[in-house]
Amino acid sequence: MTVDLVRFRQTLSSRRDELREEDRISAADRAPVTLDQESVGRLSRIDAMQVQAMALAQARRRQSEQAAIEAALRRIDADEFGSCLKCGEPIARARLEHNPSVATCIDCARAD
Predict the structure, then answer these.
(1) Residues 33-56: b if buried by 16+ CB within 10 A, e if exposed
(2) Quick one: which of 27, 61, 31 has its CA closest to 48?
(3) 100 and 55 in one domain?
(4) Looking at the structure, do residues 41 and 64 belong to the same domain, yes or no?
(5) pLDDT by residue (tens digit) across 13-37?
(6) Range of the domain at 18
(7) Which residues, in sequence order, are CB contacts of 62 under 8 Å at separation 6+?
């Protein structure tokens, strides 16, 4: 499992780096929309506000995913990776392959 832990750590770290880059790129879209009616028409402002709202929602999703990734990396460090946080049973390998940041087995995830 040591080799797998190294691979899972690399996968998680790479995804965390991607999320940070996406966050950096989208920073301008999350900026406040100016209400200067001289430089931007009403429809352009509405469009800018929609872009801002979507960018903020995406940023929240990225933050949530980053938190799950950080928690998974801490579980790797604590030698607790791959065990369900609720029931303690092993998480299916296929589930971890699909998303290594999951913290619960499929049965406990369904129960939520």
Answers:
(1) beeeeeeeeeeebeebeeebeebe
(2) 31
(3) no
(4) yes
(5) 999 999 999 998 888 777 776 655 5
(6) 2-81
(7) 19, 22, 23
Q: How far is CA 78 from CA 35, 53, 65, in A?
A: 50, 38, 20
- Per-residue tokens: 74: 């801490």
Report residue 82 as tokens: 């791959």
Q: What is the mean pLDDT of the chain?
A: 88
Query: How many residues does the structure list for the chain?
Result: 112
Q: How confident is the model at residue 52 (pLDDT cuts 50, 70, 90)?
A: confident
The pTM of this model reads 0.81
pLDDT tens for 64-76 read 999 999 999 999 9
Is-contact 104 72, C-beta < 8 A?
no
